[in-house]
Amino acid sequence: MHYTQNQKISQITPSTLIIGIDIAKDKHVARAQDDRGIEFGKRLVFENRIHGFQLLLDWMERHQKKNGKNHVIFGVEPTGHYWLNLAYFLRAKGFDFVLVNPMHVKKSKELDDNSPTKNDTKDARVIAQLIKDGRYSVPNLLEGIYAELREGVKLRDQLTKQLMIIEGRIQNSIQRYYPEFFDVFGDWEGKAALCTLRLFPFPSQIREMTPEEVLARWKPFVQRGVGLKRATKLVETAKKSVGIQIGIRFAKQELDCLLDQYDLFKKQLKELDEELEVLVDTLPGAKEMKNIPGMGSTTVALFYAEVGDITKYSHPQQLVNLAGLSLREHSSGKFKGQTRISKRGRSRLRRALYLAIRPMVAHNPTFKALHQYYTKRADRPLKKQQSLIALCCKLLRVLFVIGNKQCEFDGSLLLRGIPQINELQAA
Fold it and tell me: CA-CA distance, 262 to 166, in Å (whole number)?
């Protein structure tokens, strides 16, 4: 699944037929060549349909027989999501399928003809040439429960994003029509606050009511936490409100729609989290991961949704590279540039790790001790942000071991070999 450069090059032999494919929405372009770069025949244009895929296979078989090739490798430049259908189709047929970096295609397209011209036919040729030189990667095409988990996590991100948008629009409405609302309620998502927004959200409606009437309207929905004092304050602030007093009719209708959407997204998100938790519990090592102080089901689900089957990785550094947490540096001669993370990887995995490590630094004794050591050690102390990134890599290595061995987390193993921490714990 993850090969060195030499291993990639060694897979391209004189008996290999290399097919580079430029991906588009409806029609793809394919070109074939051998390991020396000699092209076979003309290009093939085929549709993103089953008959187009079959046309590709027939075209490939003709080139195989004509040129005596017994091994075929297909390569594409990933364009959006349009390449996935072809990838799963060819993988199901048992063919080798690889990806080339779009940036590599862009930067190497002038090597053959010294021209900045770009078109589908030329790109397919450039893709095949990159594969010949071993400049490709093997995609992590998830299957089974891991594919289900990735789709579930993607849906969760969409629901969370929509929920944040709705929450912002609700607060926008409150600030325009009743800015003093937050003088009465600290949070608009509380039971009494939501009840008020549902029943009488605008000052013009509240002014006509007495505190006793407000309290009576609250009681069927809110049993505790509100009283006459809160109702009196609501009425008094409504009488002095500077909120907008025009367009109330449709503003109320807009707010009702927003609150309905808010309730719907909250319900869908809760149900989805329950389903994801049940799904995650069936994965190897998931329960042990959730036992780590500070780790939750959502983080474990995000980890497996991005990584897939952990047993397909032979070294934890592969996970670090996948997350884009590997270090990069620009240096030349006596100049030594600043070291940063590459960010060449799955941004959703990187974000999940970062959001997980922050509470772990505060509540997990092991990672808290490591963070203090990294930031306060005498020899090359790290900045706080650098320490958090280093701990994200450490967490990835922990998850790699737990996923492969299904063992419990032992924080003492991480602290072993650090004299300052050991002396502190002994004291």
Answer: 6
Same structural domain, 299 and 422: yes
Does residue 170 share a domain with residue 118?
no
The count of residues in the chain is 427
- What's the CA gap between 25 and 285, in Å, rounded? 39
User: 108 lies in a domain?
Assistant: yes
Q: Which domain holds residue 303?
A: 286-327+343-426
| 162 within a domain of the structure (yes/no) | yes
Do the Cβ atoms of 115 and 128 come closer than 8 Å? no
36's tokens: 């020396």
- Both 319 and 389 in one domain: the answer is yes
Residues in contact with 75: Cβ distance below 8 Å, sequence separation at least 6, in sequence order: 18, 19, 20, 21, 97, 98, 99, 100, 127, 128, 130, 131, 136
Q: Do residues 271 and 252 both lie within one domain? A: yes
Fill in the amino acid letter for 409: F
Q: How many structural domains does the chain have?
A: 3
The C-alpha atoms of residue 371 and residue 382 are separated, in whole angstroms, by 9
Crossing angle of the two packed helices 365-376 and 384-405, in degrees rounded to 10: 140
Neighbours of 290 (CB within 10 A): 15
Q: What is the pTM of this model?
A: 0.84
Whether 314 is covered by a domain: the verdict is: yes
Contact 391, 371 (CB under 8 A): yes
Q: Are 369 and 391 spatial neighbours (Cβ–Cβ below 8 Å)? A: no
Tens-digit pLDDT profile for residues 141-190: 999 999 999 999 999 999 999 999 999 999 999 999 999 999 999 899 99
> How many angstroms separate the CA atoms of 380 and 377, rounded?
7
In the block, residue with structure tokens 């540096």: 329
